[in-house]
Write a structure and sequence with these properties.
It contains 11 helices and 11 strands. The protein is an alpha/beta fold and 334 residues long. It folds into 2 domains: 162 residues, Bordetella uptake gene, domain 1 (D-Maltodextrin-Binding Protein, domain 2), CATH 3.40.190.150; 100 residues, Periplasmic binding protein-like II (D-Maltodextrin-Binding Protein, domain 2, 3-Layer(aba) Sandwich), CATH 3.40.190. The strands form 2 sheets. It has a 6-stranded mixed sheet with strand order 2-1-3-10-4-11, sandwiched between helices. Strands 7-6-8-5-9 form a 5-stranded mixed sheet. β1, α2 and β2 form a beta-alpha-beta unit. α4 crosses α11. The radius of gyration is 24 Å and the shape is globular. The model has no long low-confidence stretch (mean pLDDT 91).
Length: 334
């Protein structure tokens, strides 16, 4: 009597095939990372040349070029508070040859604020932060309306006495500069008129041209404050900003809820091999050891190279915080 050899169960065959496919995929990713990079890398910036994000990215790109031995090209795709550039970056191949320069708003705010958006937070993998900084509440010292203000309390008192008259600028619809001001106005008990600009530089110019009364500016305001063209009333960080030691924090002046630190960072399309992300992070992290590059970045924030995992955890935490604010303020954009 001849015995027939029984075939392995179907489930066992499927499991073996999946395990084999996973091994092949992991091997391919490892090989891809081993040879990375072998051609130019592009970094998409969703903001105009000369913006904080653009300046910080160009410093990082030059350092990457030196460390990785390939050209690193910065491509500006401005518009819609960075949405145009982010949408294009989200659709790029996850091979490490397209990265996205971003700020806090693009990743932690926009996906929760816009009803229709060409990308989601899940479309990206964190690489590293580059800079972190507070916002600076500014007014024009030459303005007939706000020139006499010496504190955030002065601004709040003016706004409460004239509901809806105070005009505040932002770097764009949904930008963290506008949302942070919403938190301030909510806690201080006043209503104000929002005037969104196309970027922080334009909003800053709006204050100096007296088009708007105030703006939660970036550290790019510091030279103008020191030159007397702007007055800094408060900063949103947990401590006073190193370049404006005489300017109190929002917490010091009675608004502890208005504690906001924003970051500039690099991200990669989701599913980019972790080995490639780690290679990029390792190359960038040594930027901290170059005094010349650090000196170029310091006007835009503290140089903070957060590892991918830690950066991802920070994104998750900030997303939850801004989600609560957006829901509470009933904010939504088309």
């Amino acid at each position: 009597m001849t015995r027939t050899r029984s075939s392995p169960p179907r489930r066992t065959l499927i499991a073996a095939l999946l395990a084999g496919a996973a091994a092949l995929s992991a091997g391919a990713a490892h090989a891809q990372a081993q040879g990375y990079p072998n051609r130019p890398i592009q970094i998409i910036v969703g903001f105009a040349a000369g913006s904080t994000t653009d300046i910080v990215t160009r410093v990082a790109a030059e350092h990457l070029r030196t460390k990785l031995g390939q050209p690193v090209v910065v491509v500006n795709k401005p518009g819609a508070n960075g949405v145009i550039g982010a949408t294009e970056a989200a659709r790029a191949a996850p091979d490490g040859y397209t990265l996205m320069a971003t700020n806090s708003s693009l990743i932690t705010v926009n996906p929760q604020l816009y009803k229709k958006l060409g990308y989601q937070q899940s479309d990206f993998a964190p690489v590293t932060t580059l800079t972190m900084a507070p916002l600076i509440l500014t007014v024009n010292p030459q303005s007939e309306r706000t020139g006499s203000f010496k504190s955030a309390a002065d601004l709040a008192a003016f706004a409460r006495a004239r509901p809806g008259e105070l005009k505040y600028g932002s770097a764009g619809p949904g930008n963290i500069t506008g949302l942070a001001f919403e938190v301030f106005s909510n806690k201080a008990g006043f209503k104000a008129l929002h005037v969104p600009y196309k970027g922080a530089v334009a909003a800053q110019q709006g204050v100096m041209a007296k088009e708007v009364d105030t703006f939660l500016d970036t550290p790019m305001a510091v030279p103008h404050v020191k030159a007397g063209r702007l007055t800094a009333l408060a900063v949103t960080g947990p401590t006073r900003w190193r370049d404006l030691p005489d300017v109190p924090t929002m917490k010091e002046v009675g608004f502890p809820e208005v504690e906001v630190t924003y970051w500039g960072a690099l991200m990669a399309p989701a599913k980019t091999p972790p080995e490639i992300i780690e290679k990029i992070y390792s190359a960038l992290s040594s930027l901290r050891d170059d005094p010349n590059l650090v000196r170029q970045l310091l006007p835009h924030g503290d140089v903070v190279m957060m590892p991918p995992k830690e950066f991802g955890e920070r994104i998750a935490k900030e997303t939850a915080v801004w989600g609560e604010i957006i829901q509470r303020e009933n904010l939504q954009l088309d």
